[in-house]
């Protein structure tokens, strides 16, 4: 699993799918309003002569006014406004149907004609499906065609037979039910997608946090060994003035490391080559370690701060081991840092007495935790080679060349 905090922190639980579906439905409803309104206007004008003056025009203005608001809000994708206009338009339409028998001043003029509100029935049933909760949308889709059947069988509604009225209302009912079913299915699918996304994000976050805790544990172990235990051991073995001076320098550096543990930069910070080299040389100067540092690679190369902190800690531990175990006499120590595109190789060498790696204690904390585990924990690899009388070489590589996935996308591990 790729536990890159820079990646998982962008995966916050959201309702993006549901919101996207609602915007699509709102725009679809706005387009429907244009089509059905354009179809209805000629019939409204044609039946003007049979309408009773006064309240009939009020309801006409309210009906087409809410349709205009629904169209604009829907096409703009304003979900909240579309829902409110849909609710208002559906209620106005229901009032229009209920009041239709008293809005017609000349019932004889309507015989055999289709009332113009019928042409809006389908779009306003769709509006009710969008605007109301499922329960109330079902009530509206059932009640509105029933009211239309009752009105259609009266003289102001055309005076047709009940079976004829049922056929007219059935078309609108089937279309409205189909739209409600489609909207409900889309909403539930979107909700399921968002729930799956939130669940996966929560599990991914938990895994990353567990990884962070493990990294923090290893880091604390490394600091305790590198900066605290090593200082105590060095101080207890300080028999000469030079040894005591080195122990004091190590104690000062240990205090700095402990204080800096809670003030490290963020995990997404990138560190330049010059900054890395400067920090490393300052630490060596503080410890009194005489070492020659050489860097090669593009000057604009940058590394995640977690990699920099880990490499500095591992390299300092290798140099500390060299100071303590390379033997008496002048010992030349060199550090080579080779920066490549997407990675770094650091080599620490000394020409001291060396040791037999085959007889080295496997559980030796200075090598296992402070060097090998540290580098492995960020996706790199540490190699230690030495022979008696031939010095020691420690090679640190990031990322591990045997793990190409890490080469393509470097892992950035948390430090706090």
TrEMBL record:
Record-linked InterPro entries: HATPase_C_sf (IPR036890), HATPase_dom (IPR003594), Sensor_HK_TwoCompSys (IPR050482)
Name the record gives this protein: Histidine kinase/HSP90-like ATPase domain-containing protein
Top-level lineage group: Bacteria
Native organism taxonomy: Bacteria, Bacillati, Actinomycetota, Actinomycetes, Micrococcales
Ranges where the Histidine kinase/HSP90-like ATPase domain occurs: 316-400
Keyword Membrane: yes
Membrane-spanning segments: 24-43, 55-76, 88-104, 116-132, 137-154, 166-186
Keywords for this protein: Kinase, Membrane, Transferase, Transmembrane, Transmembrane helix, Two-component regulatory system
CDD domains the record matches: HATPase_UhpB-NarQ-NarX-like
Keyword flag Metal-binding: no
């Amino acid at each position: 699993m790729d536990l890159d905090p820079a990646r998982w922190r962008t995966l916050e639980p959201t309702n993006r799918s549901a919101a996207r579906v609602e915007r699509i439905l709102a725009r679809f409803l706005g387009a429907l309003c244009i089509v059905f309104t354009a179809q209805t206007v000629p019939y409204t004008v044609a039946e003007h002569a049979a309408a009773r003056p006064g309240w009939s025009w009020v309801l006409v203005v309210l009906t087409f006014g809410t349709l205009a608001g629904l169209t604009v809000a829907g096409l703009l994708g304003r979900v909240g406004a579309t829902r409110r206009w849909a609710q208002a338009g559906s209620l106005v339409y229901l009032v229009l149907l209920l009041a239709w028998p008293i809005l017609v001043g000349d019932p004889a003029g309507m015989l055999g004609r289709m009332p113009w509100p019928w042409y809006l029935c389908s779009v306003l049933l769709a509006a009710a499906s969008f605007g109301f909760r499922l329960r109330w949308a079902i009530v509206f889709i059932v009640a509105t065609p029933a009211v239309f059947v009752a009105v259609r069988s009266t003289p102001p509604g055309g005076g047709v037979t009940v079976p004829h009225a049922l056929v007219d209302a059935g078309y609108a009912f089937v279309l409205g039910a189909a739209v409600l079913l489609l909207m409900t299915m889309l909403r539930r699918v979107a909700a399921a997608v968002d729930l799956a996304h939130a669940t996966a994000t929560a599990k991914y976050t938990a895994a990353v946090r567990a990884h962070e805790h493990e990294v923090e544990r290893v880091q604390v172990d490394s600091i305790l060994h590198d900066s605290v235990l090593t200082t105590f051991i060095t101080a207890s073995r300080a028999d000469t003035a030079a040894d005591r001076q080195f122990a004091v320098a190590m104690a000062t550096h240990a205090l700095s490391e402990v204080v800096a543990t809670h003030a490290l930069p963020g995990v997404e910070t990138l560190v330049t080559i010059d900054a890395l080299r400067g920090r490393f040389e300052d630490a060596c100067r503080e410890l009194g370690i005489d070492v020659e540092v050489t860097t090669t690679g593009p000057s604009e190369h940058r590394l995640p701060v977690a990699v920099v902190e880990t490499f500095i800690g591992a390299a300092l531990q290798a140099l500390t081991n060299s100071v303590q175990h390379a033997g008496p006499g002048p010992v030349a120590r060199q550090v080579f840092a080779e920066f490549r595109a997407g990675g770094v190789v650091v080599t620490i060498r000394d020409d001291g007495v060396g040791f037999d790696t085959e007889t080295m204690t496997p559980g030796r904390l200075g090598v296992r935790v402070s060097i090998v585990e540290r580098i492995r924990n960020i996706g790199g690899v540490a190699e230690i080679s030495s022979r008696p009388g031939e010095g020691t070489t420690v090679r640190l590589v990031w990322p591990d060349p045997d793990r190409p996935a890490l080469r393509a996308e470097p892992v950035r591990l948390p430090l706090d």
